[in-house]
Every structure is written in C-alpha cells, then in structure tokens.
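To assess whether the prediction recovers the assembly geometry, we first specified each molecular entity separately, as shown.
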Amino acid sequence: DAGITQSPRYKITETGRQVTLMCHQTWSHSYMFWYRQDLGHGLRLIYYSAAADITDKGEVPDGYVVSRSKTENFPLTLESATRSQTSVYFCASSESTRQTQYFGPGTRLLVL
Amino acid sequence: AQKITQTQPGMFVQEKEAVTLDCTYDTSDQSYGLFWYKQPSSGEMIFLIYQGSYDEQNATEGRYSLNFQKARKSANLVISASQLGDSAMYFCAMREGRGNAGNMLTFGGGTRLMVKP
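The predicted structure of the complete assembly is given in tokenized form:
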C-alpha cells in the first residue's frame, strides 16, 4: 500500500531552469493538492485539483504550473525557478471534498 | 488577518504529563473543519485529529483530544501522557468555504513540542 509518493525527494537546481516535481497516489482520491512549507509561514497552498483536468489556484500560485491528466498523478512544474522557490513541497490528497487530507513525504528543493 | 493562530512557538513537557497546544481561528463560515497534524523531525505530515464545526462532542483519537470552544473560536490539542516520540512540530489547520474551494486547508505557523525524559 504505497499511498502517496513524491519524487524526487531532494532536488538542487539553478535559477531559470525548469523543474517538475511528481506526485502519485494509489488511493484513487479525487482531490490533490500542492503546498509549500517555509520557515515562518507554515504550509501554504499553491494549487489544487478536484478531479482529472480540473485545477485551481491556491494562495501562492505565481511561478507554478500544474496539470492532472490522470487521477493518480499531479505534477507541479516550476517553469523558471527562482531562489524564492527554495522550499519543501508537499503533495496531499483527499477522497472527496471536506475530507481529511493525507500528505506525501515532501520534496526538498534548493534553487541556487 | 491570520486565519489560524498558534501562539506557542515552542513548548516543553515532562514525559508522562499532559500538554495543551493552543489554536485559535477566524472564520465567518458556519460550516468549517479543524485539523491537527504532527510533523516529526523526519519531515512527513501526519494527520492526528479532526473536529467539524457542527460536532457537539469534542473529538478524541487515542491520547489526542481536541478541546473545541466554538464561541471562543479555539481548537486546542490536548496530548495526554506525553511520550518521547511526541516531540515534533504540531500544526493546526482549518477547512472553510464551499464547493471545490471548501477543501482547501489554511495552516497555522506551528508549535514545536519537546518532551523531556
């Protein structure tokens, strides 16, 4: 029972490069989410998806792109990475609206 | 204005004692949910307990209970009989809104709990 996985777990990249963070869940949950965690800010929602092909912005969407062609995958792309995007990124999923969200292990991203 | 406020950046508790982690929230919705998550040093986010705004009883899950005071807009986490493995960051979060947006979580800044042997 893999649950929700993220890859890579650690990533170092350079300013201006494109980076894609992967998220995969095996529960067939409808909802998926991307958060970033920074010191002093807790977790903040970047994007979420209610189902395949349905995505919407969260609190801090600028500089990020998401897609969801399959229910189980929800990749997050930084089109041109900036140092301010250095963070820990968490993917989460929930079965339906208003249900508990379960989190992946996180990806630590460093942008040089 | 902060929607979720956790006023205790860090706390110590003696092993086997109970501890209360504070959380206050701000919403104008009648229907909302409150969550607590634990983040150990390994980094994962672990769901602990949930309280719905219409739930009349305080939620309990093993050694965790949620002291829900709706009029005061507080949702404090109580951990009974603390264990060394309880040392971690604890986050309070709120779900509010309707439709697809009603599944979005807003998190507080967290409280670091350290259990002393």
